[in-house]
Write a structure and sequence with these properties.
- This protein is α/β, with parallel strands linked by helices.
- The chain is built from 12 helices and 13 strands.
- About 45% of the residues lie in helices and about 15% in strands.
- The longest helix has 22 residues, at about 95-115.
Length: about 325
């Protein structure tokens, strides 16, 4: 297959591009290499993809002309749209970045998929769409009409936009609601990355809501395993009916899946495991809840498990050890 992967210099995008090219697929990766976090980390990720199956194009998918040129030069069998402006807290102070990338950019991807008749568009959604939902674990059939951050609102909007295009133009689309993905080559703005850096440097870590938080941490290899399996299963009208989805989905090749670990971890235990991996205690600064944050995430993964036999297998102990080993090798050697 020939696959377009947007956000290919990002955390999940890099791992996906490397995996698919290693599997022998032809991959075209695009990324605008913005400075939301360390650009050198993004460039170094790209250098790890040494396969002759991988082609990188520096481009902003929010630029309609750039997207048009890419689709004029290439014919794709799949689109894996992982590019986005990420970050819940950053969206509070920089809202326009999210409109530019997550809304204007996504419509360009949808339009390109429509006109090129791409057989399957996978795109990144987020567990953030569940907001303050009280029902645990979070299920794809739950109401997600009350996002508590602009980031979450743009991801919910992506799902609505994808549904509309699937309904009107019969474009098979699959949205993946990622739950706190972590691992080597991760994002420096994520808590586990910030904690590791601070602990190694003997600095304080900020522990919000006094540590009374839980996250369904999902290791990157488990996420990529799910993506590799689901990319070959574009939703059809028949398969969508078989999911017993909510009304309105019946004649639309559209699916949404949670992709999580199905096992939330308490934040304080998470820090304890990280301390053990590093061999050093953290200096904790307990702070109140931050705007836009939620107290608990917990993925119901039954739909994805039935679809592709998805079984995340990486424990938090193993996953954090892998991350810490990578961090020390990358930043301290």
């Amino acid at each position: 297959m020939k696959i377009l992967i947007s956000g290919s210099a990002g955390f999940i995008g890099y791992h996906a591009a490397k995996k698919f090219s290693d599997l022998g697929h032809e991959v075209v990766g695009i990324d605008n290499l913005n400075d939301y976090y360390d650009v050198n980390l993004k460039k170094t990720r790209l250098k790890q993809i040494s396969s002759d199956k991988f082609t990188f194009i520096k481009a902003d998918f929010a630029d309609e002309n750039e997207v048009h040129k890419i689709f004029s030069d290439h014919v794709f069998d799949r689109i894996l749209h992982l590019g986005a402006q990420a970050g819940v807290r950053y969206s509070i102070s920089n809202p326009r970045d999210y409109i530019h990338s997550n809304l204007a950019g996504f419509i360009n991807i949808l339009e390109a998929a429509r006109h090129a008749n791409v057989p399957h568009l996978l795109y990144a959604s987020s567990s953030s769409v569940y907001g303050m939902n009280k029902k645990i674990p979070f299920s794809e059939v739950d109401n997600v009409d009350h996002p508590i951050s602009l980031y979450a609102a743009t991801k919910k909007s992506n799902e609505l936009m994808a549904y509309t295009y699937s309904h009107l133009y019969k474009i098979p689309t699959t949205g993946l609601r990622f739950f706190t993905v972590y691992g080597p080559w991760g994002r420096p703005d994520m808590a586990y990355f910030l904690f590791t850096k601070a602990i190694l440097e003997g600095k304080e870590i900020s522990v919000f809501n006094k540590g009374k938080m839980e996250r369904d941490f999902t290791y990157i290899d488990d996420v990529i395993d799910g993506i590799v399996k689901i990319i070959d299963q574009p939703p059809s009208i028949i398969s969508t009916k078989s999911m017993n989805s909510s009304k309105g989905f019946e004649n639309t090749p559209y699916k949404i899946f949670n992709i999580g670990n199905n096992k939330p971890e308490n934040l304080l235990y998470f820090i304890e495991v990280l301390e053990n991996c590093i061999g050093k205690k953290a200096k904790k600064k307990f702070l109140p809840m931050q705007p836009g944050d939620v107290k608990k995430t917990f993925a119901d993964i039954n739909l994805l498990s039935r679809a592709i036999d998805y079984k995340p297998s990486t424990s938090i102990e193993k996953g954090l050890k892998e991350f810490v080993n990578w961090y020390i090798q990358h930043y301290q050697n």
